Amino acid sequence: MHCLPFLFVILQAHKALPEEEFVDTTVKLAKNMIFECMYPGSDFVSQAEWFKITITGKNSMAIFSPTFGGLIRTDYISRIHFLNSSVTANDVSLFFHNASKADLGLYYCILQLFPLGRWEKVINVVQSDDFEIRVPFNSHMVSEPGKNVKFIFQSQLTSPLKRVTWERIQSHQIDHLTFCNLSNGKSYGLKYQRKILTSCSQGMKSSSIIIHNVTASDSGFYQCCLTTNTGENETFVMKLTVTDAKTDHQIVFFLAGGAVSFLLLVISIIIIITYCCRRKRISKALWDTQTQPSKNYARSGVPDQTQDYKEEDIYVNCPAFSQRPNPR
Q: What is the CA radius of gyration of the chain?
């Protein structure tokens, strides 16, 4: 992806906006769109309002007050609503539906802060096929949630750098993170929902950004575009993957549960097979016992003596003994 189209978007928006103010997010025109506006600080927000920039000026679309709640203007009452059901002044993101080419252009999200004053985010809706990265990324970084991530790009260009921009590229929008004008050494931190730190100084040959306390929602592609005084361009694309600890634990739990279930299934099958084999052996033994002929140990042709037995007189021959008188 070439960085010139996005620089062109920034510069075109710069013509219609006050000095040193740039487009924060470029959104691809679609039937349904989300306009993100989340204030990352902890200051008190007394009021938030959305505007559409037109030829004649700014048309109010919606307004929110912590005291009086939210209000959608008549021209947009059937086309937009606040994205979050529990709206707070720090997050007044809009859901835009049934959009058409008439909705191309610039949108303002303006917050009144105490004690800082005015804070605004500028969104540009453009007609484009896709913002997704179509070229291989140059590096890939994996981080855990809550860590600070640093991207650094060392330029290979020999001519002095003039502009450096950092962007987050998604399929439906581009978030412009920082814009560094090296001619005056000023860095413009844009209104990204995550706090971004960057360096900007004349004569530098490398550029870096730091994203604090990353979450899984920060995963995606990040692009650095450099332009020299002679018009040369260089682009570097990085991919960030932030692992979701909760999801990882769920995956481990799912795998462990699957392993236990599989083990129980195997044990159940073994028990069933063993039980069936045992019953088969017992059934076979019973069958053999019932079908085997009974053994008769009596000799054939010999009558049963118990049946033919008859009582007979028994005679015993005893010798006669002489009786002698008892002596007195």
A: 46
- Please give the model's pTM, rounded to 2 decimal places: 0.64
Each residue's pLDDT tens digit, 254-312: 566 677 777 888 888 888 888 777 777 766 666 566 555 544 444 444 445 444 444 45
CB 224 within 8 A of CB 239: no
Q: How far is the C-alpha of 166 from the C-alpha of 240, rounded, in Å?
A: 14
Instruction: Output the CA–CA distances (angstroms, integers) from residue 228 to 60, 158, 182, in the order listed.
Output: 40, 9, 10
Distances (CA, A) of 308 to 231, 301, 304, 305, 311: 136, 14, 7, 5, 10
Q: Is 145 exposed, middle or buried (0-12, 13-18, 19+ CB in 10 A)?
A: middle
Provide CB contacts within 8 A for 9, sequence distance 6+.
23, 26, 124, 126
